[in-house]
Amino acid sequence: MSPNNNISRRSFLSFAAAAPLAAAGRNLQASSGSIPVGLELYSVRHELQKNLMGTVTGVARMGYQCVEFFAPYYSWTPDYARQVRKELDSLHIRCYSTHNDTTSFSAAGIGKAIQLNQILGARFVVLASAGTITTQD
Fold first, then answer.
1. How far apart are CA 84 and CA 76, in angstroms?
2. What is the pLDDT of residues 48-104, one digit of tens each?
3. pLDDT tens, 22-39?
4. What angle do CA 12, 116, 73 make, to 5 degrees?
5. Can you tell me the distance from the alpha carbon of 13 to that of 37, in angstroms, rounded to the nearest whole number?
6. Angle at alpha carbon of residue 87, lines to 84 and 92, rounded to 5°
7. What's residue 34's pLDDT?
8. What is the distance between the alpha carbons of residues 80 and 73, in angstroms, rounded to a whole number?
9. Rounded to 10 degrees, what is the CA torsion of 63, 34, 48, 74?
10. Where on the phi/psi map is residue 107: left (φ > 0), alpha (ψ -120 to 50), or beta?
């Protein structure tokens, strides 16, 4: 799988706007050694959908130390998750959590979510939204 490093103008501008935050985070981590700065990849979902590896590479080059994949990662096979993990490792970037919909928390789905998260090195499976909560008066 060869990454295509073409990035749209909109994505470039989004990345450029966020770069100072990532650089500041890298400096903070270097000085304190404890707080990595990451990016929830939902914020670049359109680019991620076109080119996952190229987008993750771009995020890492901007200085982010970690990423959070969102619900579409759940459709990956374990083999593809291993490929993604290998790329993350080569970029020295980590995935500490994933951002999930309720499918990942179903009785039938939690096992797969845990397996993929273990492969990615994530310690937390985060529920994106519990849905609408209604109250009775």
1. 10
2. 999 999 999 999 999 999 999 999 999 999 999 999 999 999 999 999 999 999 999
3. 666 555 555 556 789 999
4. 35
5. 19
6. 125
7. 77
8. 10
9. 160
10. alpha
Structure token digits, residue 33:
């050694």
Token code pair at residue 92: 């020295």
Task: Report yes or no: 94 and 88 within 8 Å, Cβ to Cβ.
Answer: yes
Query: What is the per-residue pLDDT for 39?
Result: 95
Other CB atoms closer than 10 Å to residue 115's CB: what's the count? 12
User: Is the pLDDT assigned to residue 9 strictly greater than 90?
Assistant: no
Kindly give the residue spans of alpha helices, DSSP state H, lying in 33-129.
45-50, 52-61, 78-91, 110-120
Helix axes 78-91, 110-120, angle to 10 degrees: 30
Give the single-character DSSP code of 128. S
Element holding 15 (H helix, E strand)? helix 9-32
SS3 52: helix
Q: Would you place residue 8 in the very low, low, confident or very high pLDDT band (cuts 50, 70, 90)?
A: low
